[in-house]
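User:
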Amino acid sequence: MSREVVRPAALRALDREIVACRACPRLVEWREQVAQEKRASFRADTYWGRPVPGFGDPSGRVLVAGLAPAAHGANRTGRVFTGDRSGDFLYASLFRTGFANQPTSVAADDGLELRDLYITAAVRCAPPANKPTPVERNRCLPYLTRELDLLSSVRVIVVLGAFAYEAVGRVLAAAGAPLPSPRPKFGHLAEVPTARAQVLGCFHPSQQNTFTGKLTEPMIDEVFLRARAIADGVPSRP
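Assistant: Predicted structure:
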């Protein structure tokens, strides 16, 4: 049975700020160009073409941080990791591991619900070649800092790839809970403790990783099962 998730007013206000942002000229130009030109297979769609806010359970104990919206994925649908191959792989895993009510995510109104988990991104606009610049990342990070502050139940942060790991490290440092020094290297299933939350590494579910077998279904499922265990207080493995 579906359950209505009430989105707190402070998160809704942050959403509005994110969606209205035009701080990075290169990203604004690209996201809007893509929304006008479209991909042939989506030519009947009305693209979102704006920054993409986070999505999920505001009381979730697990936060997933990705890189940025895909040009023809979230930049089209308006919901993070929705409508592209990476999202297909991610949401299927969240369904198998009990964090989502359905295994697919094709549109913002398709009935998807997340349970005990919230998804966001380091950069909110689709970047050319999926590569934001360091300056663009840093301009966007205050949104993630504020988001994390509002998501007070978060105990585990799953970082999808090294870019997200770097971004989350900066956000945690700004929040007074830096990663250990020297900073542990990013790795799949690497666990890094901080005063705010446990950081858990996961290879990004990009087609490059999933098609080559660098990231398989059992591998990503293990990450989310481990995330729940950490949230439940199961100690780190030796």
